[in-house]
Amino acid sequence: MSREELSREVEPTETQRATLQRAAKQYGHADTHQWAAEGMPTDAMGTPSEMAAFRERQQTWPAEVPHDIEQQTEASLHRNKAAHRDHEPAGEASVPDSVREVVSEPGQQLASEIKAGLEGRLDASLDHVQVHTGSTAQQACEGVINSCINRCCDLVE
After folding, report:
1. Residue of 131, 156, 1 lying closest to 63 (CA atoms)
2. Coil, strand or helix: which one is 145?
3. Whole-number pLDDT of residue 86
4. pLDDT at residue 93, rounded to an integer
5. If exposure means fewest CB atoms within 10 Å of the residue's CB, which of 53, 107, 109, 120 is most exposed?
6. What's the rounded Cα separation, in Å, for the pair 152 and 150?
7. pTM of the model
8. What is the domain partition of the chain in residue ranges?
9. What is the pLDDT of residue 26?
10. CA atoms of 136 and 51, how far apart (whole Å)
C-alpha cells in the first residue's frame, strides 16, 4: 500500500482553515494547494526553513507512514486542545491543576534546530512536544519546583 493510499482525508480545523486562507492570500492558491498535497503542516507553509525541514523529515519516514501524517497530527492536536478548553484541564489528575491549565492551552512547537538535535540524540519523535511560556507557565513551573523542594526536604530530614 502506498503512502497516498495510507493517508486519509483530513478535515482542517478552524485554525488550520484560517492559516490556509492566509497562506493562499500571501503565496497564492496553487502553491498552498501544492504544499497541502505534500502533507505539509500548515504552520510550516511559506517558511522556507520549516518547509525544507519537513521535506527532510518526510524522506526518512518508512513507507508505512502516510505522507500527510504531520497534517493528521496537527489536526488532532487542534481538536484535542479545543476539547480540553471546553472541559477540565488536560493531563493526568495527579498533575497539579496549575500545570494542567497551562498545557490545556496551545503551546509552540520546539524550534526546528533544537527539535532535530534532540530527536537525533533521543532517537524519538518530538512532534507532540509543545513549549509553554508566559507568566502562567512560569508560576506553574515554580509551584512544581517548590513542591519538589518541600518533598525532598521532608525525605532528607
Report:
1. 1
2. helix
3. 59
4. 67
5. 120
6. 5
7. 0.45
8. 14-58, 106-155
9. 92
10. 31
Among the listed residues 84, 68, 58, the one whose alpha carbon sits nearest the alpha carbon of residue 11: 68
The strand pairing partners of 130, in sequence order, are 109
Q: Which residues, including other chains, have CB under 8 Å from residue 128's CB and lie 6 or more apart?
A: 73, 77
Q: Which amino acid is at 104?
A: S
Q: Looking at residue 152, what is its pLDDT?
A: 65
Residue closest to 21 by CA, chosen among 9, 38, 37, 36: 36
Cell matching residue 41: 503542516
Grid cell for residue 98? 496549575
Backbone angles phi, psi at 54, to 5 degrees: -60, -50
pLDDT below 50 — which residues of the chain? 1-7, 157
Biggest CA-to-CA distance, the chain: 67
What pLDDT is stored for residue 111 in this prediction?
87
C-alpha cell at 13: 480545523
Give CA–CA dist 114/108, Å, rounded.
Answer: 13
Backbone angles phi, psi at 47, to 5 degrees: -105, 105
